[in-house]
Amino acid sequence: MKILVIEDEKLLADSIQTLLTSKGFEVEVVYDGETGKEYAELGIYDLLILDVMMPGMDGYEVARKVRSQKCGTPILMLTAKSGLEDRITGLNAGADYYLTKPFDTRELLACINALLRRQGTQVNEVAYGNTSLDLSSGMLICGDNSIRLSAKEFDIMRFLLQSGSRNLSKEVILAKVWGYDSDAVENHVEVYIGFLRKKLASIGSNIRIEAIRRMGYHLEVND
């Protein structure tokens, strides 16, 4: 499971990352609302943990903008504000649950698990066109046909399926799959896109990976 933490208190954000990583989650952290919005709109996360009080773009605005992009990722909102009106504002902005600071780590974990369970099978599979990706087995499936993906192929295919018709730039794919400190270059992305195109064709998928110069890749469904 991949979780994005958007929290401007660096110490708290890093402690949440350490806690969740120790529980087996894959966690990324950003420290401002604008960057958090950009990451969240990629649609590659299973859960967003979002602070309310941030300079610039606050958590309410981030949630509203993410929801306006038809992103259904669960949002757990964190705030020092405990008033009823504040909770209502958060829920109306698109949050699924509202946790007041300070909180016990056990309560945080319970909220996260509850939100992920609520997603049901949605967190175990992503689909587009007639093709789906089983997140537990790494199998790309089309009807009765299936093929196993390598770790890098899996990550790229998952991002593409979750983004659908929205473009993913090579820079974003490199950062998310290989990491910001990696020596990988854009050619690595191109090579793996080629692998995925062959595997999609081999199982009879009706989706294709389209490339747009300087924009990146997105999925389209064949007529």
Report on the structure:
This protein is of the alpha/beta class and 223 residues long. Helix content is 42%, strand content 23%. The protein is built from eight helices and eleven strands. It has helices spanning 10-22, 33-40, 59-68, 84-93, 105-118, 151-163, 170-178, 186-202; strands at residues 2-6, 26-30, 47-51, 75-79, 97-100, 125-128, 131-134, 139-142, 145-148, 207-212, 216-221. A five-stranded parallel sheet has the order 2-1-3-4-5, sandwiched between helices. Strands 6-7-8-9 form a four-stranded antiparallel sheet, covered by helices on one side. A two-stranded antiparallel ribbon has the order 10-11. Strand 10 (207-212) and strand 11 (216-221) form a beta hairpin. The protein starts with a strand and ends with a strand.
